[in-house]
């Protein structure tokens, strides 16, 4: 038996069942596993097909397989499907088990290795052809995280075609019944959907070339009765930003079988003799302390093992982005006034968004022409950047590197550089085409043209946007291969570019974006430590978007901005305090024209910025708890310092509170033995009191919709 132990969980694998790899246990910790765990009650059942003979007779469908394939009697969805000359390869048996370290996939992002992982590589060899499947496992004990992936080695003398290659398969223990995932759309990303799927298959994924707004590449499976604070759950988050699929198949015996990884639809990979194919890494975390416990493990894992190391602990600047302030309508003089005004408010980073390049005065032209529009900015980007620096701020710039407008110099020079099928219409989205990042020369040209600007040394931040879904997913450059390689090649090409830029410009802060939060996933976060959470900046809507995002992704990865009213997406009015309280729960920014603010608003924003700066370390670095207020429609979160010495409370009542009883909010995650002083009103509370009795707030009296409050421990009784 092979045991991977987390601090509070164990993952135990066995290959005794005739060479089929099976999961004997994934769940709470087992100190010394006995052979009873491998007793899988194998007995012949009607209509089950067996392989082997005599005492070696195995019915694969009875087993909680760690990897599966068609053709030998497992009739559930397969993890791999590999063919040689049309024949399915179907005789895989465990050939070796090694505890050896392995690196991240060569062309894809991986988690940060720190040498403390427990590694396991289970090799399966096809008895007929010699093709090898490697199941890779790394357990990172302090996070109870297992990172899995699959590697296919064609050690045969003929090509094979890989039709399916999920990163992992695992069968969950009985009692796990609910699926929680984060479906959405543009401007309403990552809604929390919890459902009981019943027998059969429930799946979701993307075929858009990006993980997309529609579905997030993450899911949690929850035992009956699991809530925020208690119960068992299992989380999955794919370190990948392209086409993916999550599938949960509840079989005829109630076993829930999970597959996650590359979407098999439209996928096919030709693997020549000697070649290796690597799947994305899948992070799998077990928690015994509820959905909140699962989220905090994902948050810590993401901060410590996914975000680029140099950014994990660095304070993120408070930015002002000019998009909603000016859209395409700006010039050097106007930007200069905005910069001066922003700097007086205490803004730390000024970001110049879309419209500064080529002839871009609307969204019909110029993507791909990454040189400055001198009509708008006669002094070039240099003049604007210097102006920001002189005003004491950093300077950031928007790019959408993956795209080309038909109306652009780049397209005129290289009409074949986009994804397309020769001779057929090229479907546009937002008047643009997707560049063919499968091709090395396209990536090189992009790197060269964008580097010219970054090489000025004046750019401190880049917003990397991506504003359409990819169709067709076809690269004419690879027309000699069977169709189906493009989505993976595109993702690998994209990561290649991310890697080049982040290595060449390690001090530039990159923020990911895709029409807001359309590609918010661990794959992008491995290069870009923060992401523009949504184009919807309405604080009301943002509560749900940020709460959904927080299931798997830490607040420090979320860009969240205060914008003007009426809100540009929804037309809604809301108070500056409410907009700030929501935005301050993530990486604070402003998405408005500072020149349009009155004296009072300016004073309020200066106060907000000073408050956030004072508590930034806590908000960006603390542990995040979703709480359950008593009032209908309310939401509340706290961010607690790791030593319990302070916390920030964010409490929202977006529905309004006419004629309602006061609300009560019981806290958890704080130190019950400490006393906490709430700074604004100078009130002292016992930690035990806040936990067991709770805070009482009368929204009606206060007349507000939000509360942001800082508490710090007083006296000696710290944990
Ligand atoms: C996308 C982004 C926005 C903005 C615009 C510019 O929609 O999400 O924040 O940058 O593009 O065109």
**Helix-and-strand structural type:** alpha+beta
**Compounds present?**
alpha-D-galactopyranose
Task: Assess the beta-strand content as a share of residues.
Answer: 25-35%
Query: Distance N terminus to C terminus?
Result: 39 Å
The percentage helix is 10-25%
List unreliable stretches of 5+ residues: none
Number of strands: 38
Rg on CA atoms, Å: 27 Å
What form results from the Cα inertia axes?
Answer: globular
Largest sheet: 10 strands, antiparallel
Q: What is the averaged pLDDT score?
A: 95
Number of helices: 14
Q: How would you describe this structure to a colleague?
A:
The radius of gyration is 27 Å and the shape is globular. The chain is an alpha+beta fold and about 725 residues long. The mean pLDDT is about 95. Strands 6, 7, 8, 9, 11, 12, 14, 15, 19 and 20 form a ten-stranded antiparallel sheet that branches. Strands 21-22-23-26-27-28-29-30 form an eight-stranded parallel β-barrel, surrounded by four helices. Strands 4, 5, 10, 13, 16, 17 and 18 form a seven-stranded antiparallel sheet that branches. It contains 14 helices and 38 strands. The relative contact order is 0.09. Helix content is about 20%, strand content about 30%. Strand 27 (about 510), helix 9 (about 520-525) and strand 28 (about 530) form a beta-alpha-beta unit. The chain binds alpha-D-galactopyranose. Alpha-D-galactopyranose (GLA) binds near residues 323, 354, 465, 467 and 515.
